[in-house]
Structure formats: C-alpha cells, structure tokens
Amino acid sequence: MKLIFERGKEGRQCTLLPQCDVPAAEIEIPKRAKPLRLPHLSETEISRHYTELAGQVHGVNNGFYPLGSCTMKYNPKVNEEAAALAGFARIHPLQPEHTVQGALEVLERTEEMLCEITGMDSVTMQPAAGAHGEFTGLLLIKAYHDSRGDHKRTKIIVPDSAHGTNPASASMVGYEVVSIPSGSDGCVDLEKLRAAVGDDTAGLMLTNPNTVGLFDKNIIEITSVIHEAGGLNYYDGANLNAVMGIVRPGDMGFDVVHLNLHKTFSTPHGGGGPGSGPVGCKAFLKEFLPGRQAVCEDGTFSLRKPEHSIGDVKSFYGNFLVVVRAMAYILMLGKEGIPEAAQNAVLNANYMMEKLKALYPPAYDETCMHEFVITLEQMKRENGVTAMDIAKSLLDYGIHPPTMYFPLIVHEALMIEPTETESRETLDEAIRAFGEIYAKAQEDPEAMHEAPVSTYIRRPDEVQAARKPVLRWSFPEDGEQK
Ligand SMILES: *Cc1c(COP(=O)(O)O)cnc(C)c1O
Predict the structure, then answer these.
(1) 187-204 confidence digits (pLDDT tens)
(2) At what angle do helices 424-443 and 320-356 cross, to 10 degrees?
(3) Cis amide bond preceding 127, omega within 30
(4) How far is the CA of 238 from the centre of ligand 1 (A)?
C-alpha cells in the first residue's frame, strides 16, 4: 500500500474556497523558510487511502476477537451518540460549574453506580487506564499508612497469577514487590501467603478473576490474612465483566479497586485509547483521592477537592467521554442486565473451553470465569507446532488471535476470552476453525509455520518490530532512508 505522501499530485486539493474579494494584507509574522510539505490529494484519494488502511486491521467490527484479558467486545453505538452530544463533547473543563451541571451530574451519578457495583464508598474518575488506576490506588494505600506514621510498610504482595501491570505499578510507587506462587489449582497458595505477610506488608494486589481465568476460592481468607497483618487489599477489577452484579470487591474484604471502563463498560479501545481506570475506595480512604469529586447539594452539582488528596494523577477529570459511555451502558443494561452480561461472559467462556478441551487442553481444568487458558506444550513437543503457529493460523479464518504466551506461568499459552456479546453461532464457527487447525497441525506441521497466508502482513520479525520500529518516512529528495 502507498503512503499518503506517495499518493496524489502537486496542487491537488479537496477544498474549494471562494476567491478572496478583499485586498490581501501582508502580515508581519515569522514565516517558514520552505512551504510545509503536506500531501496533495483529492477527497476521493483521501477517502480511499483511509479505507484501505482500515482494511488492514482486524477489529470487533470485522470478526471474532477473543483477546484474553483485553475484553474486545461489541460496544453499543448508541454510547457514541451520547458521548458526541454537544453538552458533553463541546465543553471546557474550566467552564463555570453552573454551565456544566449535566456533565457534573454524569460524574456524580456514574460514581454512585460504580460504588454500588463494586461495594466501595467513593470513586475517582481521574486515572486514564487500568495500570494508571493501580498506581493511583497504591498511592492511596501509601497515603493511608503515611497518615498513621506507619512507615515500616514497604512491601506489596502480588501473586504470580496477577496481571503484569500489578508488580510494575507497585514498583513505580516505590514498594518492594513480593511474589507469591500459585498452587496447582491456579489459586493463591495460602501457606506461602501467610509466610510472606508481616508488619512490613503495606498491602496485597489481587487480580480476580486471575490471569488464568479463575476466581480465587479462598478470597475471604486471603483478604483477612492481609488485614490481620495491618495491610490493605487492592482488587484489580479490570475484568469485572466476569463478576459484576454478582459479587462485589467491597464485600470480599477489599479496600481499593480499579475498573477498566474501556474493557468492562464498553468503550472501544483497540487503538490504544482513550481509556478510563476509575479507582474506588472505602470511606476511610476517601479524603486521599486525587483530583476533584463531583458532589450534589440541594440539586446543584459542584466539585470538591478531597482534604488530604494525593494530588492530581491526570489533568482535570480524566477521560470524561469514556465515563459518559460507561454511564449510558450501565443505565441501558440496568440491575438485571449487568449480572446477565457477566453470566453470559462466563457461559461463553466455559462453552468454548468444554468444546475445545479434547484437542486443546486447558492449563487448569476448572470452571473458568470470563476467559480460559489452554496450553500447547504437548503439541509443541510432539510435532513442533507452537502457540504462535495456532494463533497465526486463526488469522486465515478471520479470527483475531487470542492473547499469546501470557500468563507467564503457563507454557505455550493461549488465553481465550470470547466475551458476552458473541453469539452461539460465532462461537461454534470459531470452535470449528480451531478443530480444522488442529487437524492441519497433525497432517502437515511444517506448513503451520507459514501461517497466515491470507493477511496483508504475514509474519513480521517481532523482535525487530518492537526494537527497531520504522516510524518515520523520509521524502525521496531527502535521501534514501525510508
Ligand atoms: C488490561 C488489564 C490491566 C491494565 O489495563 P490498561 O488499561 O491496559 O492499563 C490491568 N489488570 C488487568 C487484569 C487487565 O486485564
């Protein structure tokens, strides 16, 4: 495909402005030495360019996208309409409060609904992503211990089945990370947890359901062990769509939680944002929250800075329009729809896991939550076909690969999350594709290394692509480097 600079022709454009009917004035301002080098294209050429570009990516609008731990589900288009309303999209964060009452109401009401869903007492919308929420939540935990003069708590316990961002966030806040291994059942090893806690424990970060798709059955015991040692419990609720409306982190002994609105509460996020990672906390942490909280008094909304705020973690109120989408989604599903979405997410995952089981063994053969992990260790040993080969083959069936080689505690892992919005027919089609790929892997394992054969880009050198990405294009007259 040609780059936009390689298309078109000097002088071509897609705007037709009327001739200037007043004398042109010379303005004394510094000017560019050379004219700006912009592409010269007609509207049709621009339109074709972007249509061709769009055809090179795979999104939920193209087909099945079972990317575990990422929740690539259908996002109701009506949310986009809500987020595009001028009263939400065309306002400025510095506008006087009385002119943006509706927007403040969105913040206040969404906070209330997220409190209800998580069992927390207060929520900040400022963090822009899940990992950002983790960072914010840990700062709350640190502020709490500091406020009590309890400075000896320097460690955060993180099970090895946590999302990779958990230890990274703890480390960014300055905590020492203590990793706890999982038992053979994929859950936290309680004995090892007990051995790890002490008066230097600031808290625990638990991803639940964890990265192997399991709900930790000892959750109450886990949170009590931490509380008894004087630590606080942090719940990574990025994947709350497995449990929302059914159980609440606040009822399971957690003090702080983050949610990923861009996974669970329907904001498209394939391109990397914008996202939103609200953080909820129990009342005793409320005064440490960042930013400003929308509050309502006598029917009037205003913003209030928490008294001992940790300070801003982002400008203004976070990615507000993502919050608008979340509110639209929650209101549309309502009290019955929220748990139903969770049940369907779990049902779809278990359906696929059971149907694939005979050919693709699950890493942990237990009832899963919204996602499950299979391991291709045996296939690799027997005929050299890897998780990567299977993932790449799926592309030829119009299916986006599942998450690969994650979590690290499972070898040759594929992590599959069908999501609640896929139909039985789509799941059956995917199951059939997995079956055909399995048969091919038996018949001609060598050919599997060639997949995909039908995509625009086949198998890039992933190391080179990550380490030496070509992000810049030079004009031919500027030299060879492209
Ligand atoms: C996606 C995810 C995160 C990180 O969220 P980002 O918005 O990508 O920063 C953290 N924890 C879990 C369990 C996740 O699935």
Answers:
(1) 999 999 999 999 999 999
(2) 50
(3) no
(4) 5
